[in-house]
Specification:
The protein has 389 residues and is of the alpha+beta class. The chain has helices spanning 5-28, 34-53, 60-86, 92-112, 116-137, 145-172, 185-221, 232-239, 258-265, 267-284, 308-324, 350-366, 376-388, and strands spanning 248-255, 290-295, 298-303, 337-344, 372-374. It folds into 2 domains: 5-221; 232-388, Alpha-Beta Plaits (2-Layer Sandwich), CATH 3.30.70. β2 (290-295) and β3 form a beta hairpin. The N and C termini lie far apart (84 Å).
């Protein structure tokens, strides 16, 4: 045991460190369920490699039927983690079926026909299947560059398990025994190759999950938590990236007499009314339009088109949908909203367009509410630009 001890301890330590790393990430990002499965998979890998370290102290059958199932579980849970992350569901039957077949054949090549070379080849071939399966099955979901790198690493890890074992068995299969296996090329190359593969895959996973967590934090900071639409920060981050040469429309919307809704039905009912209005605005918007909770019961829509008529049609549609909505939270009372529309010509300051839309909204409120008003001066400028074009 002393001959292989220090070298063989490196591999389980690598797996254990990454298992702890995934567990820590999961602690701070519980919504990424795959993290805990990856942590468990790497923990199983550490246990399996530690079992190889103490293999000389174990009886042959204990070594075979404890260590090998742990390795099979490591590959199966890793595959499951990939399915959890990319697809949200695990093909349990397929993974369990492969694992059961591996263990059944393992039992045969121990008690039916005792061949350590066959057992070694069997376990590594099964590992190839368990690693190659998600790499191939999830190819449509793995579209980003970081996903493609992970796909290649996982598949190559499975392939090296199979090819390396075939080469090693070719050279030393006839001399391989239970007694000399811990010091054999099959065992040592397995630990070395698996350690490098685990390191490369884990680094790629940390980069990938780091991107996911950062994207999630960015989305959270730029999204209104109650309605799910953008907040002002989210709007600012997108407006700065708009092409300067494109004309747009700005729509301001405000729920009429909202204070009386809060006073009569309570703030919880008021929040539900706001959420319902946000849903109407968001569902009516197109993919390139931005729906923003501007503050309180007031919303803004940055319309990705230089067409006052189309913007007015959108606003009228949303106004009618809100008015017709039967809202239980206010005992079925009719809730209305007013809209102000202004053009945002290319090159003009965004705050100026917002000010114009706000003035149009104020006119809608002053003229009786539950109506759509377009800022005429701004609109004539835009119509002139369209006609000139």
């Amino acid at each position: 045991m002393q001959e292989q001890s220090y070298f063989q301890l490196i591999s389980p330590m690598i797996f254990l460190v990454f298992s702890c790393g995934f567990a820590v990430l999961w602690h701070f990002a519980r919504e990424v369920r795959a993290l805990k499965v990856f942590a468990f998979s790497y923990l199983l890998g550490a246990i399996g490699l530690l079992g190889d370290f103490i293999r000389p102290l174990l009886s042959p059958d204990v070594a075979i039927f404890v260590i090998n199932p742990v390795y099979a579980a490591t590959a199966a849970t890793f595959s499951a983690a990939m399915f959890v992350f990319y697809r949200g569901r695990v093909p349990v039957r397929a993974l369990v079926g492969v694992s059961v077949c591996m263990l059944a054949l393992l039992t045969w090549f121990r008690f039916g026909h005792d061949m350590i070379a066959a057992r070694t080849l069997l376990m590594n071939a099964g590992g190839f299947v368990l690693f190659a399966y998600p790499a191939i099955a999830l190819r449509r979901e793995m579209r980003r560059k970081v996903d493609r790198v992970l796909q290649a690493l996982v598949f190559l890890n499975g392939l090296q398990l199979l090819v390396r074992t075939l080469v090693v068995i070719w050279f030393e299969g006839g001399t391989l025994t239970q007694a000399n296996y811990p010091q054999s090329a099959a065992a040592l190359t397995f630990q070395l190759s698996v350690s490098f593969a685990a390191l490369a895959i884990a680094v790629n996973l940390f980069v990938m999950f780091g991107m996911e967590i950062v994207a999630g934090l960015t989305e959270t900071s730029e999204t209104d938590p109650m309605t799910g639409v953008l907040n002002r920060r989210g709007l600012e981050s997108r407006v700065t990236g708009f092409a300067a040469g494109q004309d747009r429309m700005v729509i301001m919307a405000d729920i009429d007499r909202f204070k009386s809704i809060n006073d009569r039905y309570g703030h919880e009912a008021g929040d539900r009314v706001i959420t319902n209005f946000a849903r109407i605005l968001d569902c009516s918007a197109r993919e390139d339009d931005l729906v923003v909770r501007w503050g309180g019961e007031e919303f803004m829509v940055v319309f990705a088109a230089a067409d006052p008529a189309l913007a007015r049609l959108y606003a009228e549609s949303a106004r009618c949908a809100l008015e017709a909505l039967n809202q239980d939270c206010v005992d079925g009372a009719t809730v209305t909203a007013s809209f102000g529309i202004a053009c945002w010509p290319a090159g003009a300051p965004f705050p100026e367009a917002v000010h114009m839309a706000d003035k149009a909204l104020y006119r809608a409120k002053r003229n009786g509410r539950n109506r759509v008003t377009v800022h005429e001066q701004n609109t004539r400028i835009m119509k002139g630009k369209i006609a000139a074009a």
